[in-house]
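Quick one:
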Amino acid sequence: MSCPVVSVVAKSGTGKTTLLEKLIDEMKRRGYRVGAIKHDAHSFEIDHEGKDSWRLTHAGADTTVITSPEQTAIIRKNRPEPTLDETADAFFGDVDIILTEGFKRSNRPKIEVHRKERSPTLLCRGEEHDPTLFAVASDEPLEIDVPFFDINDAVGICNLIESRFLK
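Output:
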């Protein structure tokens, strides 16, 4: 893999997407090319019934590509689901860093988002100790063995990501 991958993990409804939006915005402001991967533990449908691309996929195409001057989308049947590394290698050769949402079981470096009203414990420092955790972003101060950031401190978190993975 040619570029670093950093995963933002948390329990559902904690603010992973919100933090990632801020991190992507800050990384772009600093001039980096950023890729994003969202893991969905459930099945999802990106295409819409009746559209030509949906019809081609449902006719049996294993891969369907939709392209326009502005963007390209790939719909590929997974058998089995590719790993995070396989996905990164296949689609992200043109970025400086990949930020992911989810992939809490991967071996990639992780930032955990925590909200006190959502859970009293951390995923990566709860029942199991995840050695890939390298930072926590929370809405309450925590005594933790990794750098701690306020949940809204995208600049500070980007400084850490930049110093560890991009310099």
